[in-house]
Amino acid sequence: MKVNRIIALQLMLSMMLIIGITSCSKKSSTKNSSRATGWNVDSKKASANKKQEAGPGLVFIEGGTFTMGKVEDDVMHDWNNTPTQQHVQSFYMDETEVTNFMYLEYLDWLKKVFPPTEENYKNIYEGASPDTLVWRDRLGYNETMTNNYLRHPSYAYYPVVGVNWIQAVEFSKWRTQRVNEALLEKNGYLKKNAKTLDVTAESNFDTETYLNSPTLAYGGNSEIVLPGKYADKKGGIRTPKAGKNGKVIQPTNIYAQRSSGILLPEYRLPTEAEWEYAAAADVGQREYNIYKGQKKYPWSGSYTRSGKRQSKGDQLANFKQGNGDYGGIAGWSDDGADITDEVKKHPANDFGLYDMAGNVAEWVLDVYRPIVDNEANDFNYFRGNQYTKNKIGSNGKIEVVTKETIKYDTLSNGRIVARAFPGQIVQVPVDEKETYLRQNFDKSNNINYRDGDKQSSRYFDFADSESDTKKVKEERAMYNSPRHNVTTDSLGRMVRKYDKSNKRTTLINDNIRVYKGGSWRDRAYWLDPAQRRYFPQDMATDYIGFRCAMSKVGAKAEKRKSARN
């Protein structure tokens, strides 16, 4: 027995020694050497596994599959909501609609950096300002909202309206710059408070400009753009200490990069598929790997009133209950509002998003078409891709917009907007260098792919070898929509040419965008997340607002799950 014990003890010690050696060798090999080359690498960099943090105001939406376009009621009986099975990647979305307070922060920044008193900048502020005249009605007295809704503190946390699609996109771009600017400052790559004290039209921050050429950010001011952990007390580059061999190795990659994991992806409008997926929030109906039925509204159940004991009978969204009934009778208000309402006044859906039905409808990123073509793609569906690249100047470097080179576009309604702000990189369409022999895209503008281009027209002859080179006549185009034109004469006066042709057959064109969700002006029919409508991208209303989204990088889920969950 004693001998057996000794043998067992020896075996146990041997096993412990083998396990220890194996684990040590495994630990050392993964920590100090590359799995690709075996070279010694910076262990901190090699083991870095930063998870993306949610940007300010955003809520995580775990992606998945869902039936897009499936509505409970379809009184129109058209093909606008043909159900298709789609998959959406995980992303982030604003908890609430963008409020007047948030948008005024944007306007105040523009007013400070690009003073409208200067002739060259006056159209920047004016082009970004919401159209407050959307509240007017020929047979209604709404001047109170016209004068007060945007700026009065009583409406500070109400959703901003009077904003067209283009303005919503520009706000999203601005928000990206300000959030990343603050993150770089927090991590020591930008001078403290430069974003408020030192910013000017010629010296401001743009994320893409910083990533492509950090020394061009803030107009190339080295006192503001800092080398992070290599910065000395005066803001210069600190000289590193000499190594054991006496040599001094100068630091590289002193500025933040994408690989640093500090900068967030861009804020943007959500795609139609993302918005509908987030609004439906079918995750609340999940049982194992299946959804228990289809939701009619963003909340569970087939009714617009709450069934909970504490709030029984209360409306779950701000919408129009009937003809002339926007908020019930005095003393018993159905939804607590007659126009828009303060955000977060109604319960959130199962993703934690507020007002995904009612209050205001919301712009999404997509160009409108009557169908969603899931045969071409059923993953992150989006129509509206226009691929661009950075413009390279004659000196071989990226070209940045300056005060002298800023350009403006005149919209069909006469409003003038800046194409890009000073400090941003000039963008040009991709060309054959990027598209040659590619299978996934062959041109810059893909809005009309499989619907709207000449090949999808009923007049296109596939048997005719010359059809590719022929121009489809205007009256035989797929979408024969009105073509309004705005020009400027020799004296600088705006000349508006309204299309009065009686041969137009549709309102659909490449400048028509989708908006989703019901609003305070809509009946309950439009509260269904799958309902979809369209509106010109350069026009605004008193019932369309927006919220931002952000793509998620990395893993699909934030927490690991098993099938049992």
Give an overview of the whole structure.
The chain is α+β, with helices and mostly antiparallel strands. The chain contains 10 helices and 17 strands. The protein has helices spanning 2-32, 43-46, 100-113, 122-128, 143-148, 165-186, 194-197, 207-212, 272-280, 432-435; strands spanning 58-61, 64-68, 84-88, 91-94, 286-287, 290-291, 361-367, 388-390, 408-410, 416-418, 427-429, 485-488, 494-497, 512-516, 532-536, 544-545, 549-551. Strands 15-14-7-16 form a 4-stranded mixed sheet. A 3-stranded antiparallel sheet has the order 1-4-17, with no helix packed on it. A hairpin with a 5-residue loop joins strand 12 and strand 13 (494-497). The longest helix is centred in the first third of the chain and has 31 residues, at 2-32. The model is unreliable at 25-29, 43-48 and 465-470 (pLDDT under 50).
Notable features of this structure?
17 strands; 565 residues
Topology:
Blueprint: H1 2-32, H2 43-46, E1 58-61, E2 64-68, E3 84-88, E4 91-94, H3 100-113, H4 122-128, H5 143-148, H6 165-186, H7 194-197, H8 207-212, H9 272-280, E5 286-287, E6 290-291, E7 361-367, E8 388-390, E9 408-410, E10 416-418, E11 427-429, H10 432-435, E12 485-488, E13 494-497, E14 512-516, E15 532-536, E16 544-545, E17 549-551
Parallel strand pairs: 7-16
Antiparallel strand pairs: 1-4, 2-3, 4-17, 5-6, 7-14, 8-11, 9-10, 12-13, 14-15
The separation of the N and C termini measures 50 Å
- Estimate the helix proportion, in percent: 10-25%
Q: What general form does the structure show? A: globular
What is the gyration radius calculated from CA atoms?
A: 28 Å
- Could you list the spans in which at least 5 consecutive residues all have pLDDT below 50? 25-29, 43-48, 465-470
* Spatial strand order of the main sheet: 15-14-7-16
- Main sheet overview: 4 strands, mixed
Class inferred from helices and paired strands: alpha+beta
Give the DSSP E fraction (strand runs of 2 or more residues): 5-15%
Q: Quick one: how many beta strands?
A: 17
